[in-house]
From TrEMBL:
Protein name according to UniProt: CAP domain-containing protein
Ranges that cross the membrane: 12-29
Keyword annotations from UniProtKB, A to Z: Membrane, Transmembrane, Transmembrane helix
Ranges where the SCP domain occurs: 72-195
Statement: the UniProt record of this protein carries the keyword Transcription regulation: no
Record bears the keyword Membrane: yes
Amino acid sequence: MKRSHQKKKRINPYLGYGLLIVLVCIQYGKDSLYFNNGGGGKNWRIGAPLVNPVSAFPGRTLSELRQQALLLVNRDRKLNGLPPLREDPLIAHTAQKHADDMVNRNFYAHVNPDGQSPTDRYRANGGIGGIGENIVYQDRWPGVVLSYGLAERFQRSWMYSEGHRKNLLTPGYTKFGYGISIDRVTGKVYAVQNFQ
């Protein structure tokens, strides 16, 4: 009987430890990775995330982010018994201009440095009537990309803020616009939701 002198291949124990660490991070870190929105509050609900580990992080175009933002808003409106909103190009243009303006002039406010309110800006772009507005700002995050995960995170923050949630869940609104802008030097991100 011949003995085999082949060495048994051993799995590197560090590989196993590394895999275990990754699995633990995914399990316990999922809330910070946008995979859990909680259930909402006493008189309102928030929907399950529309992102997963594959879709959350890749960079997206403005058009893709606008579509995702509308899906997120309508997810939460539906869950709260409200009709869906539709994207309005002029409202979206107004939201995007405000997000870009906040980046370019380094401010964070509903009223811009020229004293224009959301409604003033909408009317200056040719709109009729007033609009509601939500804004959010994320400070200096190196390497940030505009992604579905970021849109989910912003939507969650608006839903857990009473004043912002009131805008999102106003029954009379039918139209929606979304803008998002990033300062490539500082990593600051500004996002705007406008409603009518």
